[in-house]
């Protein structure tokens, strides 16, 4: 009988196959480092935007609401004045 792999045991074959499938275990990440950095920057910028909007809503929300109400009542009074 012809032996193709005379001195190789089963365990060695399994190790060899694993090395072929994953030769470099350090770089097996599916997302590169640059992509992680870009994603982190985007998330930080988005968090800053949400924080700024929350600050405006909390600090100046009453002022903005009063300004909107003032403009709405002004437009309504102009409409009723023009119609009447």
Distance between the termini: 111 Å
- Major β-sheet profile: none
Shape call: rod-shaped
The averaged pLDDT comes out at: 80
Strand content: under 5%
Secondary structure class reads mainly alpha
- The parts where pLDDT drops under 50 for at least 5 residues are none
Share of residues in helices: over 70%
Computed over alpha carbons, the radius of gyration is: 34 Å
N-to-C order of helices and strands: HH
> In DSSP terms, counting alpha (H) and pi (I) runs of 4 or more, how many helices?
2
How many distinct beta strands?
0
Write a brief structural summary.
The chain has 84 residues and is an all-alpha fold. It has 2 helices and no strands.
Question: How would you describe this structure to a colleague?
Answer:
The chain has 2 helices and no strands. The protein is mostly helical and 84 residues long. The chain is 75% helix and 0% strand. It is rod-shaped, with a radius of gyration of 34 Å. The longest helix has 51 residues, at 33-83.
Q: What are the main properties of this structure?
A:
84 residues, mainly alpha, 75% helix, 0% strand, rod-shaped
Sequence-ordered SSE layout with sheet pairings:
Layout lengths: L9 H12 L11 H51 L1
């Amino acid at each position: 009988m012809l032996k193709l792999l005379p001195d190789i045991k089963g365990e060695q074959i399994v190790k060899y196959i694993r090395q072929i499938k994953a030769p470099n275990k350090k770089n097996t990440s599916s997302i590169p480092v640059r992509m992680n950095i870009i994603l982190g920057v985007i998330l930080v910028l988005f968090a800053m935007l949400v924080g700024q909007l929350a600050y405006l809503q909390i600090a100046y929300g009453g002022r903005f609401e009063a300004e909107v109400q003032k403009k709405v009542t002004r437009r309504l009074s102009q409409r009723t004045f023009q119609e009447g």
